[in-house]
Amino acid sequence: MPVKLDQKDMAILKLLQQNARATVKEISGKVHLSTTPVYERIKRMEETGVIKQYAALVDHTMIKKGLMVICYVSLKQHNKTAGAKFIRAIQEMNEVIECYNISGEFDFMLKVVAENMDTYYDFHVNRLSEIENIGNVQSVFVMGIIKQTHVMV
């Protein structure tokens, strides 16, 4: 259920999305509130789940994960048990950095990072394709990133 946020909340969220390490004091100066109300607003947004977590965004090419692949996956069977098994298996795979349940021809879209084509091939053949109930996998190789952001407000 959506949480009601006012303009000050939205301004705080925008600042935190741009820099999650910003201090309450820095944020309060930019949104023209004292530190106590800013702290309380941030705490409320954390407790209600508006702010899910704080994270460091890593450049995958700098840590030997230079290949990014979008994988579209369809399952053979579409029941609750089969879907849950697939999801559990995907959650254990460090190469998969995002997974979405989608509509259309495929059931899931995965964002996968790998060191190179050889390591992706090994992941695809020996790990992903070995998951029970996999029907079809289509891999699309990312040639360049045009826009990548987590800023929503």
Key words describing this protein structure:
153 residues; alpha+beta; four-stranded antiparallel beta sheet; 5 helices; 37% helix; elongated
Q: How would you characterize the overall build of this protein?
A:
- By secondary structure, this protein is an alpha+beta fold.
- Helix content is 37%, strand content 20%.
- It has five helices and four strands, in the order H-H-H-E-H-E-E-H-E.
- The chain has helices spanning 7-18, 24-31, 35-47, 80-91, 117-128; strands at residues 67-75, 96-101, 108-114, 134-141.
- A four-stranded antiparallel sheet has the order 2-3-1-4.
- Strand 2 (96-101) and strand 3 (108-114) form a beta hairpin.
- Helix 2 crosses helix 3.
- It starts with 6 loop residues before the first helix and ends in a 12-residue tail after the last strand.
- The model has no long low-confidence stretch (mean pLDDT 95).
